[in-house]
TrEMBL record:
GO molecular function ontology, one term from the record: kinase activity
Protein name (Swiss-Prot/TrEMBL): histidine kinase
Bilayer-spanning residue ranges: 622-641
Organism: Chitinophaga horti
The entry's keywords: ATP-binding, Kinase, Membrane, Nucleotide-binding, Phosphoprotein, Signal, Transferase, Transmembrane, Transmembrane helix
Length: 871
């Protein structure tokens, strides 16, 4: 190899190396060793590493490195140079990994000791993982098991546990997701028992990267994300915790669990999200979607606006900004704020006035503005012209185009063109994400509107029924209101007034709930504001009353002092008058009589003044008594104020105690519900294990009858497993939604009728039953449908399943258009019929089997029927 020879020739600059080793000896690795043997090994390793690490390496460089490392390893073994041998081994692992050539390491397998074999097996596994070919899955599993076995013999528990990772990856490569999960659970449990939360967190994060989005089997994505959140919270990793809270909220939204999504997203936004975090707009956007579904207008608008504002600050991507403007427009439009919605759309197209418009996101946004300003016909012309100039290559954009132009045609009274474009949307030709649920809902609704205008009632019923297949938890409340109203209109037009009444009740209940949600929140805010203002007003009035009483007391004291001073002045004046009169009498020398008369007159005047003084004293006493009474009144008022405050504090304390007890009770109820759901979950998992064991057992059987019996048992166990699955997935863990349960059970049984081309027709009333009734019904249905598959048809056929309410009873009917019942059935058929008879007795029902154009099985049993909410 030219590069290899050049590397060897370039190494001859070392004088000592040039004197002791020839190029041929270095190239061939012959066992000639002199005083510079270790230098020979070091130089070969140095050249090998240079070939490995050089920029722009080629295949020839890796081949040269492989030869040099091999020769260095041989030389180190012969001369007993352990450090050189270890260095050669490490470099050989790097060369094999870089070249993705496991054969380099497999060639060393037989000459390696126990510990080195562990690391050889580990690096071989890494290489096969890097190749990622499913054909290498068995080889990868073989070396992973070898790694675990040798590590166990060498006493290396960490390496034994590390092998579980490669076993999990190997099973995943082989398509065995369940077995891969078992190995990852071993990994997590190993780190948990050693109190190593960091590695346990890494294990769960690694597993989350492997799981497909649709996986729901334990441990599911939700369970894994809960473990990650718990460990991240324990380790104090706030930013990492924020990211997983966002992903957990996104997963809850994908499953239609809006309340759970709201809880974790609000925690992420309120407590842990840093202001400059790149995903904050996504968190706020999801919160906007949550409140849009819950019909909280102000909150939805707040979070949609906050998502856009945050993105404008921390994100430079205009596409993201325009997406969030579109989300804001959707929120405005959903709550009847059309002008605000068009303003948000105008902001999308107004960012760059010179934009030529070959991007269909821009074109579709612009079409809405054309529709508003010029009408639907102009919008249709605009879109068709743009389609001719810029053909659509993105399938999702094509769906959005068909949906938009279908709405314009419907507004322009052209139902045929609207129907044509709506049918291009449903069912979608490509998988759609959660953001397109509303698109499908509106498309089905538009098709139903067209059919109703044409008086095609059955067709309209079919389109509305397809909305039931959409995730109900992801449909906003205004969408559910629209569906209820359309069902009411359809049933009214068809003359089905009882059903129309039920749908009208549902429509009013949904409308009232949306109104109550909004008005209740506003009323709560007004009550808080009113209570605050009332408290402030009472405090201000009490302050004014105290000030007024103080002013009255000061006024009375001043009046009393003024009256007392006036009386004293009057007495002084009278005294002076008397003295002056006596003086004048003496000076004039009047007679005694005149003096006596004068004296009498003065005495009368003195008595009058004395009386006036007494009155003044009495007035002063009255003023004093009034002041005392006023003081007592103030004291009583203050004492009443203190007593009222003490009573208020006691009432607040009692309210806090009651609230704490209520929270404790709610927590106990929540824990009870959680434990009950966990029990059902574990029962379902155990039944899944039983099904897997039966499936495994069937692989070792040759007898067709035995295999058929095992398959029947699997289907029966599956019917029971679905019951428990529905119980732990339901909000009420005590009852089962029979419509959803029967649909899933029939979907599972339909897999056995693909070759027979059996078609199912179902009419299941919206009822829920407790497990004691739902379980026998599921098993009866399983037996009846399975027997129909086996004995009823020689070719295509139809199985009809109905569950209706009649006279406080439920009637389950399973009918087929096959051969009907024979006088003597097979042993398997007799066993199935016996099982159905026993199950019917368990629910106090009656069983009737007859031939009416095929086999008809009717089960009538008493039940407390409850209409399932939201169905």
């Amino acid at each position: 190899m030219k590069l290899f020879l050049l590397c060897l020739l370039g190494s001859c600059y070392l004088p000592l190396f040039a004197q002791s080793v020839s190029r041929d000896q270095l190239m061939k690795g012959k066992a000639w060793y002199g005083p510079t043997d270790t230098l020979l090994v070091k130089e070969m390793l140095k050249l090998a590493e240079r070939c490995l690490r050089k920029p722009g390496e080629r295949v020839a460089d890796l081949d040269s490195a492989t030869v040099l490392v091999g020769n260095a390893m041989k030389a180190a073994k012969v001369i007993g140079y352990p450090s050189g041998l270890l260095a050669a081994r490490d470099l050989e692992l790097d060369v094999a990994g870089e070249a993705r050539n496991p054969n380099i390491l497999i060639a060393r397998w037989n000459e390696a000791d126990l510990v080195y074999r562990c690391y050889l097996a580990k690096n071989i596994c890494w290489i096969y993982l890097g190749i990622g070919d499913r054909r290498n899955a068995d080889t990868l599993l073989f070396y992973a098991k070898q790694m675990q076995e040798f590590a166990r013999k060498a006493g290396l528990p960490d390496v034994v546990n590390e092998a579980e990772y490669f076993l999990a990856r190997g099973q995943l490569l082989a398509g065995e997701l369940g077995k891969a999960k078992e190995h990852v659970l071993h990994l997590a449990n190993y780190h948990r028992t050693r109190n190593d939360p960091g590695n346990e967190l890494f294990t769960w994060i690694t597993m989350a990267g492997f799981l497909p989005p649709e996986d729901t089997v334990y441990p599911s994505r939700i369970y894994i994300s809960e473990q990650i959140v718990k460990l991240a919270r324990r380790l104090g990793r706030k930013e990492e915790l924020s990211g997983w809270l966002y992903l957990q909220g996104k997963e809850w939204m994908r499953r239609g669990r809006v309340e759970e999504a709201h809880s974790v997203l609000r925690e992420a936004n309120d407590k842990f999200v840093p202001s400059g975090w790149a995903r904050r707009p996504q968190v706020l956007d999801l919160l906007s979607k949550v409140h849009l579904i819950k019909a909280n207008a102000d909150s939805a608008l707040y979070y949609a606006t906050a998502a856009l504002d945050t993105s404008l600050v921390i994100d430079k991507d205009r596409t993201v900004h325009n997406y969030l403007r579109g989300r804001l427009a959707d929120v405005h439009m959903a709550f009847g704020r059309g002008q605000s919605a068009y303003d948000a759309i105008a902001a999308i197209t107004g960012n760059n006035p010179d934009y030529k418009g070959n991007d269909w996101f821009y074109i579709l946004a612009q079409s809405l503005l054309v529709r508003k300003s010029k009408g639907p016909a102009a919008a249709i012309d605009y879109l068709t012209g743009k389609l001719a100039a810029s053909p659509i290559t993105d399938p999702v954009a094509k769906l959005q185009y068909d949906f938009a132009i279908a709405k314009f045609y419907l507004s322009n009274n052209n139902p045929e063109m609207a129907r044509r474009h709506y049918l291009m949307v449903v069912p979608p030709p490509v998988p759609l994400g959660d953001d397109y649920i509303n698109l499908l809902l509106d498309a089905y609704t538009g098709l139903a509107i067209i059919s109703m205008r044409e008086r095609k009632w059955e067709e309209a019923q079919g389109y509305l029924a397809r909305t039931d297949s959409l995730p109900q938890g992801k449909i906003p409340i205004n969408g559910r209101i629209t569906l209820a109203r359309m069902y009411f209109q359809l049933d009214t037009a068809r003359g089905n007034y009882y059903a129309a009444l039920q749908h009208h009740i549902r429509y009013k209940r949904l409308s009232d709930s949306a109104y109550d949600l909004e008005k209740g929140r506003q009323a709560e805010e007004l009550n808080i504001q009113y209570a605050t203002e009332r408290q402030k007003r009472m405090l201000a009035e009490r302050g004014r009353e105290i000030a007024w009483l103080n002013d009255r007391a000061l006024l009375r004291e001043a009046l009393f002092e003024k009256t007392q001073l006036a009386a004293k002045q009057q007495i002084d004046i009278q005294q002076q008058s008397i003295e002056a009169a006596i003086s004048r009498a003496k000076q004039q020398g009047d007679s005694l009589k005149h003096t006596r008369d004068t004296y009498g007159l003065l005495n009368k005047e003195w008595l009058l003044q004395k009386k006036l003084l007494a009155q003044t004293q009495h007035t002063r006493d009255l003023v004093v008594v009034g002041g005392v009474l006023l003081t007592l009144l103030l004291a009583l008022s203050y004492n009443r104020y203190r007593l009222k405050r003490r009573i208020n504090r006691q009432l607040e304390h009692q309210r806090d105690v009651i609230a704490q007890k209520n929270r404790s009770l709610e927590k106990l109820v929540h824990e009870k519900d959680w434990l009950l759901k966990e029990v059902h979950h574990r029962v379902k998992n155990n039944l899944q294990v039983v099904m897997s064991l039966l499936n495994t057992q069937s692989f070792y059987l040759q007898d067709d009858a035995a295999i058929s019996a095992i398959r029947d048992s699997q289907r029966r166990v599956n019917a029971i497993s679905l019951i428990h699955q529905k119980l732990y997935q339901s909000e009420n863990a005590g009852v089962v939604d029979m419509r959803a349960y029967i649909q899933e059970l029939v979907a599972y049984l339909r897999e056995y009728s693909e070759e027979q081309q059996v078609h199912f027709v179902m009419d299941v009333a919206p009822v829920v039953l407790n497990i004691s009734q739902a379980l026998p019904i599921g098993l009866i249905l399983n037996e009846a449908v399975t027997n129909a598959f086996k004995y009823a048809f020689n070719g295509p056929g139809v199985i009809t399943i109905t569950l209706v309410e009649e006279d406080e009873h439920l009637v389950l009917t399973i009918a087929d258009n096959g051969k009907g019942f024979e006088e003597k059935g097979s042993e398997e058929s007799t066993l199935g019929m016996s099982l159905m008879t026993g199950l019917v007795n368990d629910i106090d029902g009656t069983l009737q089997m007859e031939n009416k154009g095929g086999a008809v099985i009717t089960v009538r049993f008493p039940a407390d029927v409850v209409v399932a909410p939201g169905i």
